Amino acid sequence: MHETSPPVVAPSILAANFLHLENDIRQAVDGGAPWIHCDIMDGHFVPNISFGPDVVETVRSATDVFLDVHLMIEDPDRYIADFARAGADLITVHVETCPHLHRTLQSIHELGCHAGVAINPGTALGTLRAALEDADLVLLMTVNPGFGGQKFIRFSYDRLRALRLMRQELNKSFLIEVDGGVSRSNASDITSAGADVLVAGSSVFKSSDIASEVDAIRNAAGASYRSDYV
């Protein structure tokens, strides 16, 4: 998946001001964000409800950058086609919600989207191994999903390094994305540990200068980025 060169900052609109959503997105893109991240929550798999395909379609109409849709929902197979039609470029599902993960990832590809698989902090990385043949991206949750503004779980650095080593050993080409607690203060450490894509929500959209904050995170991430992505 080569839509842009890592490291990538992908601002999450979960933290945006929905009264001024288009303006917030434009500021983030002006700051150098080549992706926009959409967190979809159903109130069942995670203890929060966010938004659905209609909002994703609105985001698609507001920007032509890469649209990264993260489904934190039960039974995601029922809704994949809806998000593909809404304009998603990448659809990520959770290993914890997909009993037939290979088939789900293949279905995403058949709809013309890139396919990602996400994993929660408490789930063993080994559960991913069999699905990596079909994944374009692995999303490592660095907080327990459900709410924005949480603190980065420090054990995630070890998990990042382990996932990066797994990618090297298997000679795979998936991107590694992190979501949760990302800011300019830890972006360098995160990319140094192995991340290619950094999702940042509150640190970007709660800033008084969205574009400058994206630029600051991007510069911090790039300063220590070491790519083994093939």
From TrEMBL:
Q: Which reaction does it catalyse?
A: D-ribulose 5-phosphate = D-xylulose 5-phosphate
Residues annotated as binding substrate are: 12, 70, 146-149, 179-181, 201-202
Q: Which GO terms describe its cellular component?
A: cytoplasm
- Which keywords annotate this record? Carbohydrate metabolism, Cobalt, Isomerase, Manganese, Metal-binding, Zinc
EC number per UniProt: 5.1.3.1
Q: At the top level of its lineage, which domain of life is listed?
A: Bacteria
Give me the residues that bind a divalent metal cation, please: 37, 39, 70, 179
Q: How is the cofactor bound?
A: Binds 1 divalent metal cation per subunit.
Question: Which GO biological process annotations does it have?
Answer: pentose catabolic process; pentose-phosphate shunt
Q: So which cofactors does this thing need?
A: Fe(2+); Zn(2+); Co(2+); a divalent metal cation
Which pathway does it take part in?
Carbohydrate degradation
Annotated InterPro entries: Aldolase_TIM, Ribul_P_3_epim, Ribul_P_3_epim-like, RibuloseP-bd_barrel
Which GO molecular function annotations are given, in alphabetical order? D-ribulose-phosphate 3-epimerase activity; metal ion binding
Q: Which Pfam family would be a valid example here?
A: Ribul_P_3_epim
Q: Which residues form the active site?
A: 39 (proton acceptor), 179 (proton donor)
Q: Which PANTHER family match?
A: RIBULOSE-5-PHOSPHATE-3-EPIMERASE (PTHR11749)
Role of this protein? Catalyzes the reversible epimerization of D-ribulose 5-phosphate to D-xylulose 5-phosphate.
Per the similarity annotation, which family is this?
Belongs to the ribulose-phosphate 3-epimerase family.
NCBIfam families per UniProt: PRK05581.1-4, rpe
Q: Which HAMAP family match?
A: RPE
Q: What is this protein called?
A: Ribulose-phosphate 3-epimerase
Organism whose genome encodes this protein: Natronogracilivirga saccharolytica
Gene that specifies this protein: rpe
